């Protein structure tokens, strides 16, 4: 399949990986539709009326699913009927082990593209480096304390830039149909070591505190997190503690021909922006 002369639809086109996929594809000269609720192409999972205009004339789709799995299969079916011939679905490491409280949208995306009857590839990345400066753990790091229930199990954090480069390659190159790529970084770091790397780059003390799952849930509730988020994050860390995300892989290199970037490279790049000051 070739995308020449046709558009590539990137769902979540203003999001963490989506906007990076858009940038890489456009730099390579591809015709791209960056779709989101507030993006240049309007797309809303809760409004099926936005789906068909978004996919009309698209050859490939970067599928970033909502948390609610309900609309995913319907959208994929409509996209195929509109002529989409390739999907690259963003999922997550260990999603098959997490259970009902986390990742059900991603799991639905995997099922939908596998049954679509067209070309598909699934990418399952580890936790992004950018979770430390764009959301999730940014505010705690700025406060000088990140407290999580990791059980001391290491995490091979991966750079969202590498994930986007892999996704862009899969959207535009042949030879990857029917494959699942587990995208890790080059090293598995205990979270305490990861926070230490960021603290050194930032030039200021930042503590990592190991919590029990119960302590973590209590802290999230005290900060005003909704119960569904408390359950989801708890399920994610339970899967991490079980080791389902800890193994290194060489799938980034297999797709783009180079090793992934390490956390130290990321921290050195981001620290001068003042993200953790």
TrEMBL record:
SUPFAM superfamilies: NAD(P)-binding Rossmann-fold domains (SSF51735). Transmembrane segments: none annotated. Pfam families: NAD_binding_10. The lineage of its organism: Bacteria, Bacillati, Actinomycetota, Actinomycetes, Kitasatosporales. Residues 12-173 form the NAD(P)-binding domain. InterPro entries: Ergot_Alk_Oxidoreductase (IPR051604), NAD(P)-bd_dom (IPR016040), NAD(P)-bd_dom_sf (IPR036291). This is NAD(P)H-binding protein. It comes from Streptomyces hesseae.
């Amino acid at each position: 399949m070739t995308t020449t002369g046709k558009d590539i639809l990137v769902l979540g086109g203003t999001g963490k990986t989506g906007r990076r996929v858009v940038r890489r594809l456009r730099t390579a000269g591809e015709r791209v539709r960056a779709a989101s609720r507030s993006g240049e192409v309007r797309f809303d999972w809760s409004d099926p009326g936005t789906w068909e205009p978004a996919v009309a004339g698209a050859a490939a789709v970067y599928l970033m699913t909502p948390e609610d799995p309900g609309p995913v299969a319907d959208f994929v079916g409509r996209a195929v009927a509109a002529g989409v011939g390739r999907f690259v679905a963003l999922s997550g490491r260990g999603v098959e082990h997490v259970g009902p409280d986390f990742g059900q949208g991603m799991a639905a995306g995997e099922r939908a593209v596998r049954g679509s009857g067209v070309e598909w590839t699934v990418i399952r990345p580890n936790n992004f480096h950018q979770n430390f400066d764009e959301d999730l753990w940014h505010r705690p790091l700025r406060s000088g304390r990140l407290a999580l229930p990791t059980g001391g199990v290491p995490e091979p954090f991966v750079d969202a830039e590498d994930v986007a480069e892999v996704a862009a390659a899969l959207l535009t190159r042949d030879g990857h149909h029917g494959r699942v790529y587990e995208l890790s970084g080059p090293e598995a770091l205990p979270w305490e070591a990861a926070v230490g790397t960021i603290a050194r780059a930032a030039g200021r003390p930042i503590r990592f505190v190991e919590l029990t799952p119960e302590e973590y849930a209590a802290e999230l509730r005290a900060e005003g997190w909704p119960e569904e988020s408390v359950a989801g994050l708890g399920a994610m860390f339970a899967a991490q503690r079980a080791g389902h995300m800890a193994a290194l892989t060489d799938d980034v290199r297999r797709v783009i021909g180079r090793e992934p970037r390490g956390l130290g490279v990321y921290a050195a790049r981001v620290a001068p922006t003042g993200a953790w000051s």
